[in-house]
Amino acid sequence: MSAENKASGQAQLAIMMHPDDNVAVIVSDGGLPAGTLVRDGLKLVEHVPQSHKVALVDLKKGDAVRRYNVTIGYALEDIVAGRWVNETLLAMPDALGLDDVPLATIKAPKLEPLEGYTFQGYRNADGSVGTRNILAITSTVQCVSGVVDFAVKRIKEELLPRFPNVDDVVALEHTYGCGVAIEAPSAPIPIRTVRNISRNPNFGNEVMVVSLGCEKLQPSRLLPAGSIMLKNEAEPDVVFLQDEKHVGFMSMIESILSMAEKHLERLNARRRETCPASALVVGMQCGGSDAFSGITANPAVGYAADLLVRAGATVMFSENTEVRDGADQLTSRAATPEVAAAIVRELAWYDDYLEAGSVDRSANTTPGNKKGGLSNIVEKAMGSIVKSGSSAIVGVLSPGEYLRDKGLTQGLIYAATPASDFICGTLQLAAGMNLHIFTTGRGTPYGLAECPVIKVATRSDLARRWHDLMDVNAGRIADGELTIEQLGWEIFQLMLDVASGRKTWAEHWKLYNALTLFNPAPVT
Ligand code: CA
After folding, report:
1. What pLDDT shows up at residue 41?
2. Is residue 253 classed as helix, strand or coil in its secondary structure?
3. Do 165 and 246 belong to one domain?
4. Are 331 and 436 in a shared domain?
5. Number of domains within the chain
């Protein structure tokens, strides 16, 4: 989109992302009928739905179709100007090779530091800062989940009212822990994910664990001795359900409640303090995308990402299959050749992972994406990458790794994850995310109990219908009310407010999705 510094004040009918593009996206609610003059000399020859593409020029069979100044496909037949260009008319380009991508060739523009922005957060002993004050109960295995759920319900009813400074009690449930090939080469991914989620800044470095006793993932393997997680090594905060001292179910529940009470006392003593915006660790994600994602929400979130980086914060973007077709954009933007090589390593590993399952990155797009005008993964990826903003990529994280373990405490990070909303969110939590930004075009009620999620709608129609689920309406950009820059600032300010305790809609309704581990290793 051409850089405009003030809102046009009126809605355009079709938006072009780059002057060299030969398609534009229809913006109007409900689409536009045949005969509509969408711009000088361009009349629609058929009805084109909202967020779908129209050919701006006559295209010959085999011609490259360009959006974002990138070839998103090749015409499968002649396409006259004014025609609806959808996935049935496009052949998808081959995936870029990873062997000859440019490594750290672009010097990202030097961004002016941004000083003086703060939020009210909870400082932790390890240097991280929480945006919420939550008691989390870690488990080693799915077998204990019913018991932990029962205990959490009792904790909320009987204990939590006495500890008003604690926001919530959350069971960190998962399906891992037993029945798995725990020595498989990729088993460290789910194991470190569970470990690192328990260290999330929103849990105040207060780790307690419920274990069954006989499972493969023993507490000592999940939380190695000497780590910050075992405050008292002689008596770690672990409840073993199979311990012989337990006679009857209520004995287990009482053990969990009495351990929880000690943790709640310490958490309750914490207070919010003024913290610099640099303490934010923001995970960017999109889900239920449409063709507006790359026009409104993702560019505004990308602008906010640049503001965060300027303020010294940490910003993660992820979703391997949604950056794969722009691999060259990422590797060229890497701060160093080593960072670029790490991006290639992660994407190549993921190519192999997909190939082992006999699919490739094209398995990503959904029926909803296509209905929303995204013809294929190339087009989706270009719109997705935009939310990373324009700064240099200074670090790369493998799935389940913790940012601070890698010395990554500021700047833009590529955290390699699958694009699945739940798996990506879970891995970003493990990385140490304390605030989540989620853009959606089709609409999803996504939320996490562990960390606030700010949801950004790409279209005003969605924001109107889901007025009590969406936190931000980026459709105002397409409506001509706001510029990308203005909305970027609005999102940045909202992030500081939410980090300080303002509730998101997902928190208001307690709409929380399950933690979903990425386990590329076999089960047994
Ligand atoms: Ca996603």
Report:
1. 86
2. helix
3. yes
4. yes
5. 3
pLDDT band at 33 (very low <50, low <70, confident <90, very high): very high
- Same domain for 227 and 326, yes or no, is no
Q: Which residues contact 100 (CB under 8 A, 6 or more apart)?
A: none
CATH number at residue 79: 2.30.130.110
The reply to whether 239 and 373 lie within a common domain is no
Residues 340 and 392 in one domain: yes
| 60 phi, psi to nearest 5 deg | -90, 155
Q: In the 3-class helix/strand/coil scheme, how is 58-90 assigned residue by residue? A: CECCCCEEEECCEEEEEECCCECCCCEECHHHE
What value does the CA radius of gyration of the chain take, rounded to a whole number of Å? 24
Question: If DSSP codes are grouped into helix, strand and coil, which group holds residue 229?
Answer: coil
* Residue 19 per-residue DSSP state: T
User: What confidence tier does 428 reach under pLDDT thresholds 50, 70, 90?
Assistant: very high
485 Cβ contact list (under 8 Å, min separation 6): 5, 303
Helix (H, G, I), strand (E, B) or coil at 322: helix
Residue type, 523: V
- The string of pLDDT tens digits covering residues 66-93 is 998 889 999 999 999 999 999 999 999 9
Residues forming beta bridges with residue 122, ordered by sequence position: 130
pLDDT of residue 233: 57
Report pLDDT for 39.
Answer: 85
Output phi, psi for 127, to 5 deg. 95, -15
211 CA from centroid of ligand 1 (Å) = 31
CB-CB neighbours of 211 under 10 Å: 24
**Entry pTM:** 0.94
The CB-side HSE value for 332 (13 A sphere, CA atoms) comes to 11
pLDDT (0 to 100) of residue 69: 84
Summarised one tens digit per residue, pLDDT across range 299-337 is 999 999 999 999 999 999 999 999 999 999 999 999 999
Reported as half-sphere exposure (CB side, CA atoms, 13 A), residue 512 has a value of: 17
Q: Is residue 261 located within the same domain as residue 323?
A: no
> What is the Cα–Cα distance from 334 to 323, expressed in whole angstroms?
14
Over residues 131-136, the mean pLDDT reads 98
Q: Which domain holds residue 70?
A: 14-91
Q: In what order do the strands lie in the sheet with 134-139?
A: 168-172, 134-139, 208-211, 238-240
pLDDT at residue 364, as a whole number: 87
305 and 441 share one domain: yes
Q: Which of 271, 284, 230 is nearest to 417 (CA)?
A: 284
In the reported structure, the alpha carbon of residue 41 is separated from the centroid of ligand 1 by a whole-number distance in angstroms of: 38
Ligand 1 centre from 128 Cα, in Å? 25
For residue 121, tell me if it sits in a domain: no
Query: In sequence order, what are the residues at sequence separation of 6 or more whose Cβ sits closer than 8 angstroms to the Cβ of residue 40?
Result: none
Closest CA to 211 of 145, 259, 136, 152: 145
Asked if residue 503 lies in contact with residue 455, where contact means CB atoms within 8 angstroms, the answer is no
Report the separation in Å between the CA atom of 318 and the middle of ligand 1, taken as the mean of its atom positions: 8
Q: Give distance in angstroms: CA of 238 to centre of ligand 1.
A: 34
Measured in Å, residue 125 CA sits from the centre of ligand 1 at 32
The CB-side HSE value for 276 (13 A sphere, CA atoms) comes to 15
